[in-house]
Amino acid sequence: MAGTYSQVYIQYIFAVRGRQNLLQKPWRDEVFKYIAGIIKGKDQKPIIINGVANHVHVFVALKPSMPISDLIRDIKNNSSKFINEQNWVQGKFSWQEGYGAFSYSHSQIENVYQYILNQEEHHRAKTFKKEYLDFLQKFEIAHDEKYLFDWLED
C-alpha cells in the first residue's frame, strides 16, 4: 500500500504583547527549549528557535496533518503559561495576538537557519517592525499596518 510522504517548512514569527522587551537573556534559552519540547510533543520537528527580547522566530518541519494555526496556538499558550509559572516577569506575561507564518523549500533550510541563529546581530541594524514588514513584502502578503501588532514607538 502506498503511503503519503511530505514535509512542509514553516517559519513562525510572533511578538511579546505590546512588543515589550520581556524575554531576558538569563532565561530566554529555557523558553526556546520549552517551545522545542511543545513542538516535539505534537510530533513535529523543531529546526531552530531563537529571538530577542521582544519577539521569537520558530522554524519547524511541519507534517501536513498539523494545521499551522493549531501549532502556533499551542506554542503560545503553553510557553506563556510556562513563563508565568517561573515568575520571570512582573505581572502576567503573554504573547500578542497574531503571528507570521512563512513557508520555505528544502533548499532554503540552511539560509533560514542561519538567519534565525543570528537574530541578536541582525537586530542591531534592523527593528522588529522593519523586519516583519520586510517579510510581508518579500512574501507578497497583503496587509494593513494598523492591524499587524500593537506597535510601540520605535
Tell me the CATH topology: Alpha-Beta Plaits
The average pLDDT is 92
Which class do the helix and strand fractions yield? Answer: alpha+beta
Percent of residues in β-strands: 15-25%
3D shape: globular
- The second-level CATH architecture is 2-Layer Sandwich
SSE ordering: EHEEHEHHH
* DSSP E strands, number: 4
- At the fourth level of CATH, the homologous superfamily is Transposase IS200-like
Q: State the CATH class.
A: Alpha Beta
Count of discrete alpha- or pi-helical segments spanning 4 or more residues: 5
Q: Give the strand line-up of the largest sheet.
A: 2-3-1-4
Question: Which regions have little confidence, pLDDT < 50, spanning 5+ residues?
Answer: none
User: Rg from C-alpha positions?
Assistant: 16 Å
Q: What can be said about the biggest beta sheet?
A: 4 strands, antiparallel
In helices, the fraction of residues equals 25-40%
Organism: Pedobacter helvus
Protein name: IS200/IS605 family transposase
Domain Transposase IS200-like: 5-119
Pfam families: Y1_Tnp (PF01797)
Main attributes?
single chain, 154 residues, alpha+beta, Alpha-Beta Plaits, four-stranded antiparallel β-sheet, 5 helices, globular, Transposase_17_sf, IS200/IS605 family transposase, Transposase_17
